[in-house]
Write a structure and sequence with these properties.
The protein has about 170 residues and is mainly beta. It has one domain (about 1-170): Sandwich (Jelly Rolls). It is built from 3 helices and 10 strands.
């Protein structure tokens, strides 16, 4: 299941929405030049909130892993643009540096490491409550302008199995 941005969260004014009214609308599909967020100054960040899961809690036996999916580019001819992406809520997972290649028109896909534990150290399994409150922090690093056109979370889970007694009893009578 994929969780998409749903809310603007907290952001500095330097993360600018282009093509849509809000940052989360710019990041909910990978449409490159149509809509994106951009930022140039070093150290500016935005926190993105995500929509609640599309799968009901009772339909999930366990959550195997969570990782971010992103698409971005440097708007510079020769230098990459860097963004540090971190799990703001829940906290504990290590931040990851995404260095989007220098390219004037093509976007690069960078996906995060699959996180098996919500706390990043192996002590706490992911819960449905974690999915309902997920927030990601994107911090611009260095001074090369970056364009982000997609930020989502990929959730891998084991489906809950329910007994279907109607089939069992129907087959035996």
């Amino acid at each position: 299941m994929t969780l998409l941005p749903d809310g603007t969260g907290i952001s500095s004014a330097q993360w600018v929405a282009v093509g849509e009214a809000t940052r989360h609308e710019c990041l909910d599909d990978d449409n490159g030049a149509t809509s994106y967020v951009k930022c140039t100054p070093n150290g500016r960040y935005m926190i993105i909130e995500f929509a609640n899961p599309s799968v009901a809690e009772e339909d999930i036996a366990s959550i195997t892993s969570v990782r971010f999916l992103s698409s971005g580019k440097s708007n510079h001819r020769t230098s990459a643009a860097n963004v540090v992406i971190d799990y703001e809520v829940p906290s504990g997972n290590a931040a990851e540096l995404c260095a989007y290649d220098a390219h004037r028109s093509d976007y690069e896909t960078i996906n995060g490491i699959s996180r098996v534990y919500s706390d990043g150290v192996g002590g706490t399994d992911w819960t449905y409550s974690d999915l309902e409150s997920l927030e990601m922090k994107c911090t611009k690093s260095l001074n090369i302008e970056v364009y982000l056109s997609y930020l989502a979370l990929e959730v891998t889970y084991t489906e809950a199995v329910s007994a279907d007694n109607a089939t069992f009893f129907g087959a035996n009578f």
